[in-house]
Amino acid sequence: MRQTTEAEKSALRSHYMFEMGMTREEANDLNLEFSGAIDNYITDCPCYAGKVIIVIASGTPSIHDVFIEREGKLKLLEKEN
Fold first, then answer.
1. N or C end of the chain: which has fewer CB within 10 A?
2. Mean pLDDT for the chain overall
């Protein structure tokens, strides 16, 4: 795992604004220093291969998001119980 790049952080902020309804100020206030990327993740079964980005809230690790990249865009994965 590596730190997310500035371009990836910008894409995350855009996703939070346009796909999740955050204001620009809310998205800019996100502390994305607690985010990391895995470039070549491959699942056990033939489901997904590619980049995974993990964002952990600075307040608590129980608040987190996992994104995959599809056709050059970030897609937030649904959390399973």
1. C
2. 91
